[in-house]
Amino acid sequence: DTAVSQTPKYLVTQMGNDKSIKCEQNLGHDTMYWYKQDSKKFLKIMFSYNNKELIINETVPNRFSPKSPDKAHLNLHINSLELGDSAVYFCASSQLRGGRLETQYFGPGTRLLVL
Amino acid sequence: QQQVKQSPQSLIVQKGGISIINCAYENTAFDYFPWYQQFPGKGPALLIAIRPDVSEKKEGRFTISFNKSAKQFSLHIMDSQPGDSATYFCAASIHTGNTGKLIFGQGTTLQVKP
Prior knowledge:
The complex is a heterodimer of chains A (about 120) and B (about 110).
Chain A lengths: L3 E4 L2 E4 L5 E7 L5 E7 L5 E8 L2 E5 L6 E7 L2 E6 L8 E8 L1 E2 L2 E2 L3 E2 L3 E5 L1
Parallel strand pairs in A: 2-13
Antiparallel strand pairs in A: 1-3, 3-8, 4-5, 4-9, 5-6, 7-8, 9-12, 9-13, 10-11
Chain B lengths: L3 E4 L2 E5 L4 E7 L7 E6 L6 E6 L5 E4 L2 E6 L4 E6 L8 E11 L2 E6 L3 E6 L1
Parallel strand pairs in B: 2-11
Antiparallel strand pairs in B: 1-3, 3-8, 4-5, 4-9, 6-7, 7-8, 9-10, 9-11
């Protein structure tokens, strides 16, 4: 069973379009994240949700809107796509126990290419 | 101050050799230091992690050495194998409210030659 899954795996689209990426985790974690990995492989956190509540928003343009319908799902909607949005987007989940961050488990990534 | 600096950017090691990757940080509020391994086309996966109250942690061929006073930590891969060829990321965790976030280093691409 896949712990953290993402769809789609690949996304090729034109500049200006709107697209969504979906993420689901079956680990029972209460915290989920979106990370962006650029062409130089640098990983940077974008958002964090805890129990469906937005906790971290790392100064991401408001064209990016995450939504968490429940603890197990975190989706990312991107409006008016730009060339610079081309990257690999990773979803991750973890459990905070006793104020300590436990291991973050990453999904397989969604490779977004904006033409 | 929330940066984690990782070096080298790339590393080539012969099979059976020792691979060493170094990381440094500034923020003393970091309280969890994991290393992630990423193969091409895959998501990062936790390899080994350490908390700042210990100076060393070993799991199989992988060892983290942690120097709290110097604010540095490193990953040692003993008896490196071609299957270890991947990108390695160090990270540091900081808590924000009721969640935490990982700050990643820039990554090291390791190639182990047979």
